[in-house]
């Protein structure tokens, strides 16, 4: 049986400077070859110099007084931070003796980035992988999964039809050799984001404004990223957590259903790992605002700079760093800053899940649907999208009746997939989530007891 290829602990993902020197050297050298197994030790929000990869958006661009800080996910191995939850879910399965290379096939239900991460991690750790996805996602997603040797099983529909992905997953569970990295329901996803993303967000904020986090804004797909808000609230209880949804699929907002174009979010459910106790607001964002907004940010920077009175090249550092869901997160952050009337000392933190490399085909589709956007309309589109307030699209979900409603939505989905009501009832207490978070210490200790170092065997090439 092939040997398990080890990777980092949670603590080492938070700060790779804690790695033993030999592993740190191997990880640094591995950046030149994406398929080097030592890239497992590059799963982190930190740049090689140790600083958190974070961009403070220019206030001339955001139009608000608060500081909007975007953690940058593109430099992660495989090009998205979703590789972190995929790695943690596989790792915890290995440590529990439930998954072994040469024995099991890895199944990754996803709408894109988690599936890419699953294929990538499976490849590095010596597993075959099958990614289940809707058949209307961007072509770049499918290409990346195949590049890492993953097979695709496509279900009908788009992002908001992920329930069909979950139903297809049940078919794979019938064979015990298949092991599902179930991002919507397994708690390693929660642990990674609460510990690694949440603490990285807190550290990034220390260098801006008053050093605190006033709000954390993110659009849930699996809702794993929202777990960062739990760690932020543990340090700053007054901090606001806002979940973003497509206006076209407003499930958290009002149990709405529909199709939309924001890949990676808005999946017609309250996911099992969504701790709704710590979600304060839900906000709706139009899907085409995000697609057109990406076109403006990526393809029209010189025009925007002139429109906003910014120096030439002022936005250049942002090129390539954002995808559609990131634009959604930026729009939500701008609107939440206005809604909360935040000042120049306040910090809002949000996430750039991936980069532009996954979306050229989406902008091609935009041009087919709407025709080319004339350059002279850039300013008008920017004002319409980035300066819009939309107060009707913000809902306070802190009242008990709103929490009860969200819990009912969760029960409707997850009892169907075999979860008991007593288990779901335990999720109504913060102690459940804190206990799951506290398992990180034992998981790290268990991993450190395994052999550490490079796998001596050759990787298969793609």
Helical stretch tally: 19
* Uncertain parts: 453-462
Task: Specify the structural class.
Answer: alpha/beta
Give the rounded overall mean pLDDT.
91
User: Largest sheet, if any?
Assistant: 7 strands, mixed
Report the β-strand fraction as a percent range.
5-15%
- Which fold name corresponds to the CATH topology of the largest domain? Rossmann fold
Number of domains: 2
Q: Which CATH architecture of the largest domain would you pick?
A: 3-Layer(aba) Sandwich
Helix content: 40-55%
Number of strands: 11
Defining key terms:
462 residues, alpha/beta, Rossmann fold, seven-stranded mixed β-sheet, four-stranded parallel β-sheet, 19 helices, disordered C terminus
What does this structure look like?
The chain has 462 residues and is an alpha/beta fold. The chain has two domains: 233 residues, Rossmann fold (3-Layer(aba) Sandwich); 100 residues, Rossmann fold (3-Layer(aba) Sandwich). Helices cover 42% and strands 12% of the residues. The protein contains 19 helices and eleven strands. A seven-stranded mixed beta sheet has the order 1-2-10-7-8-9-11, with helices on both faces. Strands 5-4-3-6 form a four-stranded parallel beta sheet, with helices on both faces. Strand 3, helix 5 and strand 4 form a beta-alpha-beta unit. Helix 4 packs across helix 8 and helix 5 packs parallel to helix 6. The radius of gyration is 21 Å and the shape is globular. The two termini are 22 Å apart. The relative contact order is 0.14.
């Amino acid at each position: 049986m092939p040997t398990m290829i080890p990777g980092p602990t949670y603590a080492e993902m938070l700060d790779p400077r804690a790695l033993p020197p030999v592993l740190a050297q191997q990880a640094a050298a591995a950046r030149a070859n994406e398929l080097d197994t030592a890239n497992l030790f590059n799963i982190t929000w930190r740049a090689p110099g140790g600083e958190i990869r974070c961009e403070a958006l220019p206030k001339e661009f955001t139009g608000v007084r608060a500081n909007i800080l975007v953690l940058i996910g593109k430099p992660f191995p495989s090009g998205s931070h979703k590789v972190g939850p995929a790695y943690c879910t596989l790792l915890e399965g290995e440590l529990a003796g439930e998954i072994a290379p040469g024995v099991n096939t890895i199944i990754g239900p996803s709408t894109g980035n988690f599936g890419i991460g699953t294929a990538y991690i499976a490849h590095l750790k010596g597993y075959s992988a099958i990614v289940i996805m809707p058949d209307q996602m961007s072509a770049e997603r499918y290409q990346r999964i195949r590049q890492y040797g993953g097979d695709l099983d496509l279900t009908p529909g788009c992002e908001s039809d992920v329930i069909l992905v979950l139903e297809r997953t049940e078919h794979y569970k019938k064979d015990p050799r298949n092991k599902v990295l179930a991002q919507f329901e397994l708690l390693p996803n929660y642990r990674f984001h609460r510990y690694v993303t949440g603490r990285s967000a807190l550290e990034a904020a220390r260098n801006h404004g008053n050093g605190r986090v006033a709000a954390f804004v993110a659009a849930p797909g699996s809702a794993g990223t929202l777990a960062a808000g739990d760690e932020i609230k543990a340090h700053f209880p007054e901090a606001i957590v806002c979940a973003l949804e497509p206006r076209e699929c407003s499930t958290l907002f009002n149990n709405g259903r529909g199709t939309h174009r924001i890949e990676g979010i808005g999946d017609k459910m309250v996911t099992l790992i969504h701790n709704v106790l710590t979600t304060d607001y839900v906000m709706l964002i139009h899907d085409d605002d995000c697609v057109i907004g990406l076109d403006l940010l990526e393809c029209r920077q010189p025009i925007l700079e002139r429109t906003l009175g910014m120096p030439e090249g002022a936005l250049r550092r942002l090129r390539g760093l954002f995808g559609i869901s990131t634009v959604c997160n930026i729009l939500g952050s701008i609107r939440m800053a206005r809604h909360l009337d935040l000042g120049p000392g306040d910090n809002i933190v949000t996430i750039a899940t991936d980069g532009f490399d996954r979306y050229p085909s989406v902008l091609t589709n935009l041009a087919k649907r709407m025709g080319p956007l004339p350059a002279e309309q850039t300013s008008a589109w920017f004002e319409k999208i980035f300066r819009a307030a939309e107060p009707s699209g913000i809902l306070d979900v802190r009242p008990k009746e709103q929490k009860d409603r969200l819990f009912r939505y969760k029960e409707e989905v997850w009892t169907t997939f075999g979860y008991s009501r007593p288990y779901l009832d335990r999720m109504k207490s913060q102690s459940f989530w804190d206990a799951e978070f506290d398992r990180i210490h034992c998981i790290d200790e268990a991993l450190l007891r395994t052999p550490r170092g490079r796998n001596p065997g050759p990787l298969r090439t793609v």
